[in-house]
Design a protein that fits this description.
The protein is an alpha/beta fold and 759 residues long. The chain contains 34 helices and 22 strands. The relative contact order is 0.09.
Length: 759
């Protein structure tokens, strides 16, 4: 019996599992051959799968799998697998394409190039092996001679059988040992970079990526890949009176930009757009949102709407972000079955689901060569992408998205829908430049004129003064108070709590532990909550509806998003929104003073804000790029294009995933008072509960704590624990700041780490 895995899966079983995955891939990523301009792409993939693990028939490798004493000496079975592909009687270019994919399906060309030596090196090293075995373990010909004929005939007969079953138009030929060439010497060492704009680039990238997907899924026992069906769109028919812009989006095939107010059904517009695209061809769907909380809320919403149909067990909606483990644990109500949570986590990370809700960084990382980029790019071939809340990104991220969209639409035949409520006209034009044959879809004027949700008033003073002077208006209302900084939000919380000790008050910002943050979000939705106090986390992450708002000054686009949490559906008379003229003075790194001043100026004469006026107001605040932003925008585009052009198949990963995310997202730290608890959970392998104790910090806040003028408030601690009978070391960043579940991490305070008493 020839084994493929240590769990006693046979080689034939594993190849069969991978073949089954490839048949599913043909359904869920059908445009791969079109995008790669390779008509027989699927046949090449099947042949690559048939041979990818043939090298495991080596008797020494079989001993490794059986945990027996052996002389395998850490060789690569892929090299031997590649040799056997020479039995295929096919076009030489296609054969080399298959061979490259097989050679790199575990290790990159860089690794193989470094590992394997020249013939002269092998001869010189033979003295070190002569007392163990009578040949060098990397001598390919000698190793081939030691493979039993029965092993070769068994696997080749199996391959011939599968070739006939799948009606592949290919024959097998004999291999003469004297004609065998070293694949590392002939292919790896002679491989040259491929121009990213050539069809050869995508041919190589996709065959390599598809083979790895099949191998990974096959090894994980994933044989079925869920598909989106017509039934998943049934909920759209239940909408009694769809808006004009929804109907227009549902009937548009191709790239589009949808501009419509908050609360006007843009999500349903997007789902209808997907349905329309799938009339011509299917593909993966990516729903891109800027914030974790937005993604969590959207996942709950869409699973409820799209998966509530026959068959009832068809999970099609997945999600992925940095706090995924905690979200799943909460969604499964901290199931006692930890294996179920980890299984779900693994499925979401493997991108099995056809509809994925993610941050833009989950796609951008592929273009920076982060590990797994070849599989990520393969899944993107012919995909449909929805970019919701496009207005929420800074200049750097927006520039990268724009450049990425240009490549995705022109080279990978992706279709894109961009949605926004508030985006300056000059930024819309930047998006139009990179979207081929795009259309702008807007809500009609009569609808916009009818929406009057907010009565605007500028309060002369800061937010603490506003709370004191306006409290007579709070009676029988649910109030949102929005601050620009966590510190100011905490101060407002203490003031409100002092004034209304018996009311339900919720403080929501980014510096809570995972479990506390989820509790806060649930509390924000609770109708019993009288006061919701928070930061930018409130702007776009929550689908909530309160009666009145007091907010610190911010640029117009940020304010409009905040307003959307009050009188959201415009079912009531215009609700009062107060904008303070003064901020705390600590938010200059968050919002430019000039933008805040321009915003206050254009809003000063507004009484009732009409949606029909919003675009005009936006263009007054943002008439064009500032010189600084324009320069940064162009620099980032140039830098991203350079990174993209250096991307290569079979290449060493250009960047560690953790390092990549640190550039764009916050850094997670452990409050000092939880150190002992965290350590205990790590030692007991309770990863889910341990993750819940971490708090996210903005990079600038982290640096401020680390290089504090008096003493550093960040300390690196290392925890030793056993995993699979091996000692592992985990490093954790400990924030020496006080924490409580009401107000979160207090970065102004100091808290020593509580070590175990015996230390």
């Amino acid at each position: 019996m020839l084994l493929a895995k240590m769990d006693e899966t046979t080689l034939q079983e594993h190849i069969g599992d991978c073949l089954q995955v490839s048949l599913n891939l043909q359904k869920v990523i059908p445009q791969l051959p079109i995008v790669a301009e390779t008509e027989d792409f699927w046949d090449l993939l099947l042949l690559a799968i048939l041979f990818h693990d043939v090298g495991k028939i080596h008797p020494e490798f079989q001993k490794v799998l059986r945990k027996q004493k052996n002389h395998w000496e850490h060789q690569r079975h892929e090299v031997y697998s590649t040799i056997f592909t020479n039995k295929l009687n096919i076009d030489q270019e296609k054969l080399i394409l298959i061979q490259k994919a097989i050679l790199a399906h575990h290790k990159t060309f860089f690794y193989l190039n470094q590992k394997y030596k020249t013939e002269d090196d092998l001869k010189n090293e033979m003295i070190f092996w002569s007392d163990k075995i009578d040949y060098h373990p990397e001598d390919l010909l000698e190793n081939l001679r030691r493979i039993p004929a029965r092993n070769i005939s068994t696997i080749l007969e199996f391959i011939k059988l599968k070739i006939n079953e799948m009606s592949l138009n290919v024959s097998m030929q004999s291999i003469k040992y004297r004609e065998i060439r070293d694949p590392v010497e002939e292919i790896v060492k002679k491989h040259k970079d491929i121009n990213i704009d050539s069809k050869e680039f995508l041919q190589n990238m996709f065959l390599w990526g598809a083979l790895k997907i099949c191998d990974h899924y096959g090894s994980a026992g994933i044989k079925r890949l869920p598909e989106i069906s017509v039934n998943n769109f049934e909920f759209l028919s239940l909408l009694s009176s769809p808006y004009h812009h929804q109907i227009k989006t549902w009937n548009y095939s191709g790239n589009a930009i949808l501009i419509a107010p908050t609360g006007s059904g843009k999500t349903e517009s997007a789902i209808g757009w997907i349905k329309k695209q799938m009339e011509s061809t299917s593909g993966r769907v990516y729903y891109v949102l800027p914030y974790t909380a937005s993604i969590n809320a959207m996942h709950k919403r869409l699973t409820r709407k799209m998966e509530n149909c026959e068959p009832a067990d068809a999970e099609i909606v997945g999600l992925h972000h940095g706090k995924l483990l905690h979200y799943l644990a909460n969604a499964l109500e901290y199931s006692l079955d930890k294996n179920l949570i980890m299984h779900k986590l693994d499925q979401f990370k493997k991108l099995i689901h056809p509809f994925k809700i993610i941050t833009p960084f989950q796609i951008l990382k592929y273009f920076y060569g982060v590990k797994g980029y070849e599989m990520g790019l393969t899944n993107l071939a012919g995909a449909m992408l929805i970019f919701d809340e496009i207005h929420a990104y800074d200049v750097v991220t927006f520039a990268q998205i724009v450049t990425m969209l240009e490549y995705l639409t022109k080279s990978m035949k992706c279709r894109v829908l961009i949605m926004t409520a508030t985006l300056p006209s000059f930024m819309v034009k930047e998006l139009q430049k990179v979207l081929p044959e795009n259309s702008i879809i807007k809500a009609n004027n009569s609808f916009l004129e009818s929406i009057q949700r907010h009565r605007i008033q500028i309060f002369e003073g800061n937010i603490l003064e506003a709370i004191n002077k306006l409290q007579q208006q709070f009676e029988e209302k649910r109030i949102i108070i929005v601050c620009n900084t966590v510190k100011q939000a905490q101060d407002c919380y203490y003031l409100i709590k002092d004034k209304y000790p018996n009311e339900n008050i919720c403080l929501l910002h980014s510096r809570f532990t995972g479990s506390d943050r989820m509790d806060k979000e649930n509390q924000a939705y609770d109708k019993e909550t009288r006061f919701l106090i928070g930061t930018q986390a409130i702007e776009v992450s929550l689908d909530i509806d309160y009666d009145m708002m007091i907010t610190e000054p911010a640029p117009l686009d940020a304010l409009l998003q905040r307003f959307g949490r009050v009188n959201r559906k415009a079912y009531r008379e215009p609700s009062q929104v107060y904008i303070c003229s003064e901020s705390s003075g600590y938010d200059h790194k968050i919002y430019a003073l000039e933008l805040k001043q321009k915003t206050l100026k254009v809003l000063h004469k507004i009484d009732i804000l009409k949606e029909s006026e919003v675009q005009n107001l936006m263009d007054k605040v943002y008439p064009t790029w500032s010189n600084k932003d324009k320069m940064e925008f162009e620099d980032i585009k140039t830098s991203f294009k350079s990174s993209l052009s250096s991307l290569q198949p079979y290449c060493e990963y250009k960047e560690n995933e953790e390092a990549f995310y640190e550039k764009f997202t916050g850094i997670r730290v452990l409050p000092a008072q939880f150190y002992r608890e965290y350590k205990e959970k790590i030692i007991n392998e309770d990863i889910i509960e341990a993750e819940n104790l971490l708090v996210g910090l903005h990079r600038s806040t982290y640096i401020g704590l680390k290089y504090h003028k008096e003493r550093s408030k960040i300390q690196i601690e290392q925890i030793a624990y056993l995993k699979n009978d091996k000692t592992k070391i985990l490093s954790v960043l400990v924030a020496k700041c006080k924490y409580n579940s009401e107000t979160g991490l207090d970065t102004d305070s100091f808290q020593e780490i509580e070590y175990d008493s015996f230390l």
